[in-house]
Each structure stands twice: as structure tokens, then as C-alpha cells.
Design brief:
The chain has 2 helices and 37 strands. The chain is mainly β and 519 residues long. The protein folds into 5 domains: 1-56, no CATH class; 70-176, Immunoglobulin-like, CATH 2.60.40.10; 185-280, Sandwich (Immunoglobulin-like); 284-384, Immunoglobulins (Immunoglobulin-like), CATH 2.60.40.10; 388-518, Immunoglobulins (Immunoglobulin-like, Sandwich), CATH 2.60.40.10.
Amino acid sequence: MLRKPEGHLSPPPWITVPRRRAACSDARMMSRPPRRTAALSGLLTALVALALVAGTLAAAPTAQASPERLGISPVKGRAVTDATGTSVRTRVVVHNRTGARTTRRTLYLFLRELDGTTRGLGRARVPAMGRGTDRVVRSTHRITARTVPGRYYVLACLSPRPDGSCRASQRASVLVRNTVLEPTGSTDLAFADTPVGDRSAAMTVTVTNAGTSRTGRVRTAFSGAFRRAGGTCGESLAPGASCTVGVVFVPTTDGDATGSLIVSDRRSGRVAFDLTGTGLATTLGLSPTSYDFGTVVVGTTPTETTFTVTNTGSTTAGSVTPTLSGDTDFSVVSTDCADVAPAATCEVVVGFAPGAPGTPVATLSVDGEAVAAPVTSDLSVEVIEAAVLVTPLSADFGDVAVGSSSDITFVYENFTDTDTYITDGDVNEGNGGHGFYFPFLVTDTCLGSLAVPAHGTCTVTVRFDPGIATLEPALGTHNDVFRTAGPLFEQSIPLTGEGVSTPVRGGAASAGEPAYSVR
């Protein structure tokens, strides 16, 4: 019987070996195995060796450390409210179910509402853990102002996203309570009457967080002619804390005004304040609204006129200031305007100094500190060059008793470099060699051949004597026109006087609008 060679391995069960012959008389068969048997034995040896190598390779991963596999159980959380707001305290047990020591890991915590909405809460560090050990991880996280009131589960995850590698608390044990903003005092603010364009004195409102959680950022919103003027509201409020908002009234129109202030945060709703005030429009009146200085001669004495400013509004106008725009020959001579009260008046005197021929224009504007809009008056004048000018430009002799008379002197002024002559001076038909119509007459001899020297003057006196009137009643009003002329000029001067039995009114000469032309 053949014996197995020492070290010979049995074949795997899935290899079938042929049975040997029971008897063999052939010596050659006894001396060496058949070729087929030897071939099979070599094949068996190779397969066994291959199986051993494969078994060694398959066992290699088992000899190394197995992959990390952490478990989370249980998860607990609760909300804690203090003076700074609401925080969530968590307790999570982490299990190392691997066959090796784990490295440090991060635990991601979330709040999950009953409807499944998930909000981030924070992170916690999981220290390195030995194989088969557990670790309790505790952490505290402040909830954000965007977290709405309600009940929440705590969700602990080993990944940054709340996916399948998470474990939730068994109960919705985190309760986030409402924050409540409440006003301190009345929510109705009535401002004092304020001029249009001004700012009223500031009023202050106060709101308090009457809830048990911290508010979000406190915001303000205004409507109407009301504006914020300082205050402390703007950040979040801890439970019991307060903040203020300053409010001013800035009217832009006359009359009653209404508006509102809304103080709110994302979690507490809002507090509404009703705002009221009355705008007072200060307006001015200016008279006259336009003025024509008439015709003036270059180089003559400046003419002036007075404008009246009236406060037609319901509040003081503040400091009233007149200004001129346009030709620089116009000027503000004087003013007594200051802080003009309602219904009060003041005066502005404007003058014109003729500098060159033409038709200059300007605009007088009067404004005040509390005036909604300035008032204006348009100014105009005609400036001419003349060789000779007779002044005054009109004459009113006033009341003159019959039997007495009144004199007014007219001055001829020569603006040229040569002497000139007065060739004419009469009233309609003429009288007494000087052409005056009764009751007006000339009492000297400046007319005729008498020269007016270069840059010099000559005078003529005109007398009003109602008692010598022959073609009209002595008593009553007498009017006439003194027309005078020379080689370089022509001028008409109106005359008037009142014949009375007893005088009650004096006469006056006027430098009003002249009527003349240059030849």
C-alpha cells in the first residue's frame, strides 16, 4: 500500500481524486507511479498552495483596524432663558462601535420644528475615543433672533447636513417662548404747531421687551412729515430691557398732519404710535408788486420809492431780508424789517441812480427765515441823456386863499459843456410876455435870451394867485401845464393849486415822473 508523501495536503472537497487499482503485479508499476497519478498530485499541490495564498490575502483586512463607526444615543435638550436671552443646552451620548481608537470629530446640532423645518443650532467637539467606549457631549448655544417661538426637537448629526447620520431627541423638549414689545406710556404723540420748514422739539417714545426671550434687531419705520431724532433702539433687547426713539415733526405744508411710527422686530410683532401735528405756513405780502421809476436823466439825483412788506401768515416770519437782482443801478437804501409778527408790516426803500442810457430792470425779493417762499416785485425805468433838465418835475401849490399867492422855484440845469438858451416857457396861450395862463404866472426873467451856463443852472419862479383869475372862478381847483423848451430840450411840467377862502393845505413840489423829450 502506498503511503502519502510527508507533508502532502488533502485536496479541497471540490477536487475529485481517481481511485487506485487494488492489485498490481507489474514490477514497473510498483517501482514508479503512473504518469496520470503524478500529474494529478502536482496539480493538487499547486491548487493547495494557491488556496493558502488566497486565504492569506483575504485575512489581511481583518488584521488591520476596521473602519470608524460612531453611534449617537440618546439626544436631550432644553431651553434656558436668562437676562441675556434664550439658550439651548444639549446632552448627546456618542458610542465608538469600531475596533480601533477614533480621532476627534465634530457634532452638528440642529433644531427641528414639529413640521420638519430644521434650523442650525451650533457645533460640539467630540474628543478622541477608545474602541468600544462612550462619550457624553454637552454644549450650550444661544438661539438666533430668527428662531420663531414654538417647540423643537434637538437633532445631532455627524455631518454638516441634517441627513441620515443623525439622531433626534425623543421629545420636542426645547420651548422657545414669545418676545413681547410693549410701549411705555401713551402711543399717541401730538406735536406743537410748527412753522413750515422748521423742526419741532423732539418727543421720545420707549418700548420694552416684556417677554422671556431676546428680541431680534429692533427696527423703526416712519410715515408722514415725521423723522427720527436719535434714540437707542436698533439692536436686540434682552427680556425686561428697553430702548427709546426720538421723533420730530418737520411740516412741509400748511395745516394738520398725521403719521405713524412703527417699532418692531422679527419675532415680537410691532408697536404702532400715532403722530399728529399742525404746520404753520408763514407768508408775506409785498406792495407794490411792480414799480416803474419812469424816465430819468443820466447823472441826476437818485430817485427812491418805498415798498411795504406784510406778514400774512399765522406765525412770525423770522428775520426778513430784502435782496435785489438785476441792474446794479438799483439798490436797497434802507429797511426796518426784522422779525415780523403775524399781520405786522415793515418797509423797504429802493433807490435808482441813473448811470447810463437804457431800460434797466431788476427784481426786489423779500424772504424770511420762517417764510415758505419769498415775495417779489419787478422794477423798471427808462434812462435818457438830456442837455437841460427842469426840476421839480411837477408842482402842487396846495390851498391858497383868494387875495394871496404861493411861489415855487424851478431850476434849469445844463449838463452840457456849452451855454444854452431857454426859448420857450408858457401855459397854453401865454400871458404877460412869459406865456403863463392865469392864475399861474412867472415872476422873473430867466426865459428868453438868458443863457443857462455850461454845467450851470438858471431859476424861474412860478406864482399861483387864484384871486387874479379872470376866465374861471377864483375858488376851486386850478390845473395847468408849464411847457418849456430850448435848443436841446423840451419838457412839460404839470401845475395844480386850490383857491380857497381859508387855506388848510400847504403846497409841495414833486420829483415824480417827468414828461420831456430830447431834441
